[in-house]
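Weekly puzzle thread! Below is a chain. First person to post its structure in token form gets bragging rights.
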Amino acid sequence: MRSATITRTTKETDISLSLALDGTGKSSIDSGCGFLNHMLTLFSAHGRFDLSVSCKGDTEVDDHHTVEDIGIALGQAFADALGDKRGICRYGSCILPMDEALILTAADFSGRSMLCCDLSIPTEKVGTFDTELVKEFLLAFTREAGLTLHVRQLAGENSHHIIEGCFKALSRALRAAVKLDPDCMDEIPSTKGVL
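Winning reply:
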């Protein structure tokens, strides 16, 4: 089973995270941030990743450190679980409708960290969650995972729907990218021979 456990402790957050790529979508999420709990539960379910997250963060300040550091830990977990990436499909994409919102994601476990993010979230907050933290999470995640990720909002007016569509589409794209290709099980999916 391709899995990883990450612990990350700083003066701002104390995180324990475990990930199994070949799971069933079960999750146990306690980030200290209710909206992020909801998004990571959806991420786990739609990607079929088993995910456990426990975070004690300085949420009395705001949710920034918690969201960013969980993104870091989740990216590290993907990188660790994938190892040399032998046999994976490498690429994955998804165009996902969430009511009026339509989100496109395309992922490449290239080893080159890049985020191209085009989201137009109309409100500054969803509940108490700062919507600008979506990009901070994605930046932290892609840096640590060695992932090239494109996220593009094709339609959408409701902030909750746009963000939820983003997390669901991301998980579906990642599910496709980390899937093992039975025709290439012993190969690194690159002409360079390394990713």
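Puzzle host: Confirmed. Bonus trivia for everyone else. The first helix runs from residue 34 to 47.
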